[in-house]
Amino acid sequence: MVSDSSKTLRLLMPQWQGGNNPAYYLGAQLLNWLAPHSNDTFEEVPIDRTEEGLGVERGIFARSTLLKQAHAAKGILKKHNPDRVVVFGGDCGVELAPFAYLNDKYDGDVAILWIDAHPDVNTPEHFENHHAHVLANLLGVGDEDFVAEVPKLVNPDKVLYVGLNDGTDSEKEVMKQFDLSVVRPEAILKDSSPVLDWLHKTNISKIIVHFDLDVLDLREFRSLLIANPSTYSSMVEKAPTGSNMETIIRVLQDVAKAYDIVGLGITEHFPWDSYALANMLTRLPLIGDINKTEKPSFNWIF
Amino acid sequence: MVSDSSKTLRLLMPQWQGGNNPAYYLGAQLLNWLAPHSNDTFEEVPIDRTEEGLGVERGIFARSTLLKQAHAAKGILKKHNPDRVVVFGGDCGVELAPFAYLNDKYDGDVAILWIDAHPDVNTPEHFENHHAHVLANLLGVGDEDFVAEVPKLVNPDKVLYVGLNDGTDSEKEVMKQFDLSVVRPEAILKDSSPVLDWLHKTNISKIIVHFDLDVLDLREFRSLLIANPSTYSSMVEKAPTGSNMETIIRVLQDVAKAYDIVGLGITEHFPWDSYALANMLTRLPLIGDINKTEKPSFNWIF
């Protein structure tokens, strides 16, 4: 239950460098635009929109830009000191600062539901896009400067994957090292009991939720990186069945009725159609520039 | 060429009743949100968002509401008396008032490019959703009260279909009656000459463009009614190949470089994913109402 005097911060963080695709920038802005109006405190983390600093450094694409943006998010959290945080991404890395803040604020007395098709425990040795590193960082694994952003490491016994469908070999090793718990998509089809039972055993009252939209099935929801129109038909053939949106909504509602959700991050919104439409509009008569014959490589909205 | 002293009105008309689906309301708002900022005069036509007046009357769904909204659009046009109009829909019916206004203002000295998979010359006897009637009305065919909104009827010799892919038997009869010209999707694959050659023969300098997004191929752009996720795979099997977005952009740029485009309507944006996402957000913890277990039948943004 949320008390009246508690304070929720809604944080928009249109970070795209962690997935190396500017469509994540639009995805975050659009997610925020689609969300119901709220009287919560609202802040937008300043995100670099230049092509500077986009090289790979120490195995991480746009490393120093990502660190700078995580520091900016941390500064906003420190300023407001909220009890609860909603984060709209952006790539999954947007959760580093807010989840580290919440785990520290509640002194580790939180469980994390990692609702995602992927485990997000990759490391710079194996994968250069930081959006797949963020849970590793929260557990103390990976680039030391990112790990240094986590004042209190997350207890791996208090992490539950929900809807996990995929993962690289190197990620499976980290999962094994920490003995991370997993609820597969098929286990929540009927009801939410696998999640509720696991939470009951943790004996914890506060929950942080990571919700990567790619946990959803690409046949139902197509604003996902994997649902690229140009390769969609083959992806539909080979991708495992993800979760229905209604299933995830029901799990989150069931959890929220029994526990105090203190953090919710929604990430990886990749709106293919809106991105294409925005690009098109910048080149149409009476609306845009009819001399722009080439599709721009970066298309920022605002 | 657009002179500096000329005035363009950007009209947002999130009408959805003509297609009987509230997702068109969101589609119009989103289209407007995605468009580049402009200093043109901007107006939003007030659109009914209740479930009142949604029955079929004289063969047309929500007939009197649609007429009321067309009158409101006409009032805005009269107030501003613009030289050029951009219309963001909404269902195709949003173009009735602005195209009638422009054809009257320029005394019929305009050609209309009807860029659409469908001919939009249906009538109440054959089809109850008005969004398929609008070109018929502009030509003087269909419900008399809608036709009465067209002070100067469009000359059928000055209408060119571009990208047409479909049509009902009753529509084909109207097309034959008026001997309407057609450029098929395959004819503009290489260059825009079939459109430019036809325009050259009309000996007209001003152009109105109707751009129904459903002219685009559903395999490339999925924010279309036809791209319903639940039936998409069978639609992909059977739907004829539509036009690429880049092809339509090139045709419009080529036309705009040689002629004076005085009207541009973009219609039938049907954002499946954004609609689902907006619905989901209204039901999530920390953002919406966790007791809303049912998907709302109408989901308005704003």
How is this fold's topology laid out?
Two copies of one chain form a homodimer.
Chain A: E1 8-12, H1 23-34, E2 41-44, E3 56-57, E4 60-61, H2 63-80, E5 84-88, H3 96-105, E6 110-115, H4 134-139, H5 144-147, E7 159-162, H6 169-178, E8 181-183, H7 193-202, E9 206-212, H8 232-238, H9 245-258, E10 260-267, H10 272-281
Parallel strand pairs in A: 1-2, 1-5, 5-10, 6-7, 6-9, 7-8, 9-10
Antiparallel strand pairs in A: 3-4
Helix pairs in contact in A: 2-3
Could you describe the 3D structure shown?
Two copies of one chain form a homodimer. By secondary structure, chain A is of the alpha/beta class. Chain A has ten helices and ten strands. Chain A is globular, with a radius of gyration of 19 Å. Chains A, B: InterPro entries: Ureohydrolase, Ureohydrolase_dom_sf.
User: What would you give as the CATH superfamily of chain A?
Assistant: Ureohydrolase domain
- The beta-strand count of chain A equals 10
Which CATH architecture of chain A is right? 3-Layer(aba) Sandwich
Principal-axis shape of chain A equals globular
Name the beta content range of chain A: 15-25%
Note the total helix count of chain A: 10
Low-confidence stretches of chain A: none
Q: How many structurally independent domains of chain A?
A: 1
The main sheet of chain A comes to:
8 strands, parallel
CATH topology type of chain A? Arginase, Chain A
CATH class of chain A: Alpha Beta
Secondary-structure content class of chain A:
alpha/beta
C-alpha-based Rg of chain A, rounded: 19 Å
- Could you state the oligomeric state of the chains shown? homodimer
Largest interface: A-B, 55 and 55 residues
| Distance between the amino and carboxyl termini of chain A | 37 Å
Average pLDDT level of chain A: 95
In what order do the strands lie side by side in the largest sheet of chain A? Answer: 2-1-5-10-9-6-7-8
Q: Percent helix among the residues of chain A?
A: 25-40%
